[in-house]
Amino acid sequence: MTVIRPDEALAQAYDGITAAVDGLDDAGLQRTTRCQGWLIADLLLHVLGDAQRALVALASPVDGPADVDDVSYWRDFPGGDDNATRHAWWVRRSAAAFDRPTGIVRLWQETAPAVVRAAASADPEGYVTTQGHVLRVPDFLATLNTEAVVHHLDLTVDLPDAPPPGPLAVRIAVATMDGLLSDDTVRPTAWDDHDFLLKATGRVPLTERDRLELGESAGWFPLLG
């Protein structure tokens, strides 16, 4: 299997979001998403926050060792807690402070390419700190990628003509979900990669057939929120 460069996957992930929102007017940016209570503009601002956090982290390398990798990092973010609820409310109010929703798109279009350039030039043997953890640079980029791919699927639920996330980006996100599962779990045969990501993150509920195929591993779902 070809080794995926994390910076190339992240470029696909961010380019995919850009393509999904490019050309949307203010009304289009107020369509719904899979994230409860969030419009497209709200969710884009949330992903923009990740991009801005990435710029800070990549410009501020630290000494190792890492205390989490691209999989274990997510175990601190199961979703559904009070902090997540407060963050969701903060994002909605912050997005509403923009004069027009398209202002968020312009800021995203300026920021995302800068992150991609910083990722490409970062030392792959280096370390960064974010969210109270130290990660290897490739693992950090993988966490950004996974979040971007899942939110790309969230963004486009009401945009049937939007392009899907890029294949390299999806492979990184799927590998993350595989890592969060127990080693003996076999993914249900009817799931494609997008099904897996949506069900692993609780966007789409498990069916009875899913639970039968997953067995005891069904209790692990959602793997992250």
Automatic annotation (TrEMBL):
Q: Which organism is it from?
A: Micromonospora zamorensis
Protein known as: Maleylpyruvate isomerase N-terminal domain-containing protein
Q: Which SUPFAM superfamilies match?
A: DinB/YfiT-like putative metalloenzymes
Report the Pfam families cross-referenced here.
Answer: MDMPI_N (PF11716)
Q: Which GO terms describe its molecular function?
A: isomerase activity
Mycothiol-dependent maleylpyruvate isomerase metal-binding domain segment(s):
11-155
* Annotated keywords: Isomerase
Fetch the InterPro entries from UniProt. DinB/YfiT-like, MDMPI_metal-binding
